[in-house]
Request: fold
Amino acid sequence: MNNSDLAQILIRAVEEADSSERLLDAVQELAAAHIEESVPTLIAALGYNNPGAAVAAVDGLIAIGEAAVPPLLELIDNYNYGARAWAIRALAGIGDVRALDTLLEAAKSDFSLSVRRAAARGLGTLRWQQVPPDQVKSVQTQVLEALLLISQDPEWVVRYAAVTSLETLAIAIAVTLPDQASRITNQLQQIVDTDVDLGVRTRVKFAQEKIQQQQQQHQEVFAPKRKLQNAEVPEVPHRGGGRR
Reply:
C-alpha cells in the first residue's frame, strides 16, 4: 500500500467518525502518518469542537512541515477563532518564515494569551536560512523590535515565551547584527530587575547564561584567527643581503 492509498483510508476514517472518541483516534492516526495529502483534512480538524483532535492535528501539521504552510496561511482567515488559534500554534511550531507576518500580528495583538504565547515562541524558531541573504538583517531587526515589545506583555506566559525567543535571536544575530545584541541583553537584565513573576526572572537568568556561553564559544572560535592576523610576520632577509 502506498502513501496515497493509506492517506485515503485514514482520511475516510476521519470523515466517517461518528463520536468524539472515534474522531480523536482517527485524527491521531492520520497525523501520525505524516503524509502530505492529509494536510487539508488535518487543517479541517482544527475547526472541530474536539480539543484532543486539534492537538493531534497540530502535531501532524508540524511534523509535515513546510508543505503545510501555504494551505494554513491561505485558509487561516476563513476559520472561526478557535481554529485560527490552533493554526497559529501549527505555524509557530513549523517555524517557516512565510508565516512571519501572521506570527508578528498574533504575538502583538491577539486577545488570547495562549495565541500570543504560541506566536511569540514561533518568532524564536524561524528558519533564518529561508530568508534571502540580503534580507536577513532587516527581517531579524523586525523580529527583534517585536520581541522587545512582546517581552512587556501583561501576561507572564507571553513574557516567558518572548524571553525564550530573545535567547535564540541573540544567538542568531551574534554574527549578522552584533551591534544590536546589547539591546537584547539590556532588555533581559531589565526583566530580571523589574518583572514580578519568579518564573519569568528564572527563565531570563537561564537565557543570560546560554547567551554568555555562546558568546564565549564565538570568541574562542575567532580569537585564534585574530591572533594570527595581528601577529608580527618575521622579516625574511633578502637573498644576498648578508655578508659574504
Remarks:
- Confidence is low (pLDDT under 50) at residues 238-244.
- The first helix runs from residue 3 to 16.
- The chain is about 70% helix and 0% strand.
- The two ends are 88 Å apart (CA to CA).
